[in-house]
Design a protein that fits this description.
heterodimer; A: alpha/beta; Glycerol-3-phosphate (1)-acyltransferase; 2 domains; seven-stranded mixed β-sheet; two-stranded antiparallel ribbon; 41% helix; 10% strand; globular; B: alpha/beta; seven-stranded parallel β-sheet; four-stranded mixed β-sheet; 13 helices; 15 strands; P_lipid/glycerol_AcTrfase_prd (chain A); transferase (chain A)
């Protein structure tokens, strides 16, 4: 991943600035005095700012460098359309407060996520809107020692939708299909998948924390084909952000959505209802399940695929129950 | 085995013409025949050197006579094109592509001398949709078959080529699925598109674009004709540009158009003879297309010299596209703001 270009603030630029000031001002060809003195003399009213650390200036320089890169198209995008520069500087920062202050996400067992090489994170899906996926990605990006990017596999509906589809690709998502998953895993990426899909995310509130069917186990065959470990991931807290107590089928059909949720606040409170409830979140990464011990054509053995799928599902379900018994309050944790 | 007599179709166009020129410069090849319906430009003709130009229509059975009397042993079918000659040229283009290929293949099948066939196909055969995997390998097919336009032509052409390969197993058939070409001199829909000062894009979509430098395309076609490398290969440069990124790199300004207005926009541009976008190419602007080139590198033995980004930059500098957004201005604004910040320290 390309690092942000840091522009030396105390080097040439500042020197140039001073020189320019020198020629326009009264100083003329007089040798430039000691920097602190110049600043104090010329910017007397701004003296309070001078005590401020240069941090904001550094950030400004980074921001400008980012803007310049974007304007010139001077950045790299991988074959899936993943744009790390945009993800780190534009897409993730506004979600950070949601992660830290609103949901107060607590991660458990991050050491189970490998620092390098391919791995498949399999998690439960809930919350009406896929905020759980986003929060998992932020957790790994900001709290994992290697600050890895999570490459998520999304439903085709996401990619069909204008704006959303383009943003999803730029944030590192790709279509949930075996060729894409295997290609990512083979190139040593960390891939996240939510195999319950719409059945999980759109389930009614009364079914919370009950895992739905795990598709056809396509994610297991992808892991078997590439020999990467499967990391079961259990997310507690996402179920309560939008308690889905109803579903308006007619509106869902009209908009082409898989469901049109009714929560205690949506759509009755309009846009206000779109604010997620501030539940306390726990994201636990379990012990990796190895898949490279089953031989070359293991993915062709449906029984093995079913068994592994069940094992992953059970692990997540048990972890969910354990986390739930430890939780005393939905909002306070 | 090196070919003795080579026939190149579509030699009045950039690829065919330059390919014929390359063969003409190769002393191992005895005779080079270039076929097209209209004569090549004077510049191209000069480049082609000793290559002979045959003014023939490949839709006409006459082509069989050319192939058999000249003892052609290698046929490079480079005339399948996405660029119609004029605003009314779509039907003609389709006929040239599909009927032309049928006639050419019939002629090749008749002639006992033909030993090798190289077909310039396109990665458009994979279609372009939201339900496709991100990267296409050679064994994948389109999710929904394109119903018209160049992509459908290409699918049909490849079908006839497969049929030919079945009927003449002694002939080495190489089908090359090229991504979009770009380069300082080649003229395609895409090079015209990026040369527009304000580039219309589809609102809410950003396509992944993979490009191939025209020089690389020539090198691949040449290698396919000179060596025995039967099979289907994807050909494209390494790396990907987002459509929006490419537009910015060219210093153009993108104009997002709501998807409902895109067909109208397309008609306007075709009417104004600026860019002729067919519906399947407009779909390409929505989602783009990336192909896997592992087979090209490992089995075909060719690694493109230009990456997608380098090829595009070469096109921008070679065409001397004057950026509307001056990079110098951007840099100076950045410096100015930083200077200002330094003042307020």
């Amino acid at each position: 991943m390309e690092e942000a270009r840091v522009i030396p603030l105390h080097g040439a630029d500042r020197e140039a600035a001073r020189r320019r000031r020198g020629t326009t001002g009264a100083l003329g060809p007089v040798p430039v005095p000691e920097p602190a003195a110049t600043e104090a003399a010329e910017e007397a009213p701004e003296v309070e700012d001078a005590v401020e650390p240069a941090g904001w200036e550094q950030r400004l320089a980074e921001l400008l460098a980012f803007a310049r890169r974007r304007l010139r198209g001077d950045y790299e995008v991988d074959e899936f359309g993943f744009d790390p520069d945009l993800t780190d500087h534009v897409l993730m920062p506004p979600l950070k407060p949601l992660y830290e202050k609103w949901f107060r996400v607590e991660t458990i067992g991050l050491h189970n996520v490998p620092g390098e090489g391919g791995a498949l994170i399999v998690a439960n899906h809930s919350g009406t809107l896929p905020l759980d996926a986003t929060m998992t990605a932020i957790a790994i990006r900001s709290e994992h020692p290697k600050r890895r990017h999570l490459r998520m596999l999304g439903a085709d509906l996401v990619f069909k939708t204008p704006v959303l589809g383009a943003l999803a690709r730029k944030s590192g998502q790709t279509l949930a299909c075996n060729p894409d998953a295997e290609r990512l895993l083979r190139s040593g990426e960390l891939v996240g998948v939510w195999p319950e899909g719409f059945k999980g995310i759109g389930k009614p509130f009364k079914d919370r924390y009950k895992l739905q069917r795990f598709g056809r186990g396509g994610f297991v065959s992808a892991a078997l084909n590439t020999g990467v470990p499967i990391i079961p991931c259990s997310i507690v807290g996402a179920e309560e952000i939008y308690p889905k107590i109803g579903d308006i089928k007619a509106l869902a059909r009209l908009f082409g959505f898989p469901y049109f949720p009714v929560t205690p606040f949506f759509p009755f409170l309009g846009p206000l209802g779109a604010i997620p409830l501030p539940s306390k979140w726990y994201i636990e990464f379990g012990e990796p399940i190895r898949t490279d011990v089953h031989g070359a054509h293991a993915a062709d053995d449906p029984m093995l695929v079913f068994n592994l799928t069940d094992q992953v599902r059970e692990t997540i379900q048990q972890t969910l129950y354990r986390l739930l018994t430890q939780r005393r309050n939905v909002f306070l944790g | 085995m090196a070919p003795k007599v080579v026939l190149v179709t579509g030699c009045s166009r950039y690829l065919g013409g330059h390919l014929a020129a390359r063969f003409a410069a190769n002393p191992d090849i005895d005779r080079v025949l270039g076929v097209d319906t209209e004569p090549p430009s004077r510049d191209l003709l000069r480049r082609m050197g000793r290559a002979e130009f045959v003014r023939a229509d490949i839709r006409n059975p006459l082509i069989a006579k050319v192939i058999s009397t000249a003892h052609v042993d290698t046929v490079v079918h480079a005339s399948v094109t996405a660029n119609p000659a004029g605003p009314s040229g779509r039907t003609v283009m389709k006929e040239m592509n599909v009927i032309g290929t049928m006639q050419l293949l019939a002629a090749c099948q008749k002639s006992p001398h033909v030993r090798k066939l190289v077909v310039k196909s396109t990665s458009a055969v994979y279609g372009s949709s939201s339900r496709d995997p991100a990267v296409f390998t050679e064994d994948m097919g389109p999710k929904d078959l394109p119903s018209s336009g160049y992509a459908k032509d290409a699918v049909e052409v490849e079908g006839y080529v497969r049929g030919f390969a079945r009927r003449r197993p002694d002939v080495d058939v190489t089908a090359l699925r090229f991504t979009n070409f770009i380069g300082p001199r080649i003229d395609t829909v895409l090079t015209r598109y990026f040369a527009l000062p304000v580039v219309p894009t589809v609102m809410g979509y950003d396509a992944r674009v993979q490009l191939l430098h025209s020089e690389d395309a020539l090198a691949v076609l040449e290698r396919a004709a000179l060596h025995d490398l039967p099979g289907v290969y994807n050909v494209g440069g390494d790396g990907v540009l987002m459509l929006s990124q490419a537009i910015r790199r060219a210093g153009r300004i993108s104009l997002p158009v709501p998807s409902a207005a895109v067909p109208t926009m397309g008609r306007f541009f075709r009417g104004a003879r600026l860019v002729d976008f067919s519906p399947d190419q407009m779909r390409f602007l929505n989602w783009g297309r990336v192909v896997d080139t592992t087979l090209l590198k490992e089995e075909f033995g060719f690694t493109p010299r230009w990456t997608t980004q380098q090829a595009f930059d070469d096109y921008v500098s070679g065409r001397a596209l004057r950026p509307l957004v001056d990079p110098e201005l951007v840099a100076s604004v950045e410096r100015g703001v930083l200077d200002l910040a330094a003042r307020f320290r």
